[in-house]
Amino acid sequence: MKSYLIAGAAALALTACSGANDSPAETLEAETPPPADAEASGPMSLVDVVDGDWRSAEEKARDVWRNPVETLDFFEVDADETVIEIWPGGGWYTNILAPYLASGDGTLIAAVWDL
Questions:
Q1: How far is 53 from 45, CA to CA, in rounded Å?
Q2: How far apart are alpha carbons 105 and 86 in whole angstroms?
Q3: Which stretch, 1-5, 8-12, 19-23, 66-70, has highest mean pLDDT?
Q4: What are the backbone angles phi and psi of residue 99, rounded to the nearest 5°?
Q5: What is the pTM of this model?
Q6: CA dist 41 to 14, 27, 53, 107, Å?
Q7: Could you tell me which residues come within 8 angstroms of residue 51 by beta carbon, excluding any fewer than 6 positions away?
Q8: Euclidean distance between CA atoms 2 and 75, whole angstroms
Q9: Where are the alpha helices (H) located in 17-114, listed in sequence order?
Q10: What is the pLDDT of residues 3-20, one digit of tens each?
Q11: Distance CA 49, CA 69 (A)
């Protein structure tokens, strides 16, 4: 039960920091990071994911204010969990969460709906 509450709280907190983007979804293209060999190396660390070369310089520049490693550590997000990202916006957190969760056999769900 704790995991669900933490995941829900993390999703809400991440949504608040998402920096919504009004661009149509088809114009938002995220670069796909190389697949991680989780069995050989285990889950990636948050620091390695945040420093990943698949993230743009613009995304990395925002890390100073958004503190992604500290935020995800605070919410105790582990690489083997399921995280629901509500209205992912421009993909800043998606480009961190997707490779992190994939490296530990976790799941990222992007929840988007029309109001």
A1: 14
A2: 20
A3: 66-70
A4: -70, -30
A5: 0.65
A6: 27, 34, 18, 18
A7: 60
A8: 11
A9: 38-41, 46-50, 57-66, 68-74, 94-103
A10: 555 655 555 555 555 555
A11: 9
Q: Which of 4, 13, 20, 27 is nearest to 115 (CA)?
A: 20
Could you tell me how many residues make up the chain?
115
Within 8 A by CB and 6+ apart from 20, the residues are 87, 89, 90
Residue 3's CB: how many other CB atoms inside 10 A? 12
Averaged pLDDT of the chain = 80
d(CA 91, CA 113): 16
- Tokens read off for 12: 């809400």
Tens digit of each residue's pLDDT (9 = 90 or more) over 74-111: 999 999 999 999 998 888 999 999 999 999 999 999 99
Q: Which of 88, 77, 83 is nearest to 113 (CA)?
A: 88
* Pairing assessment for the beta strands 82-86 and 107-111 based on DSSP bridges: parallel
Eight-class DSSP state of 90: T
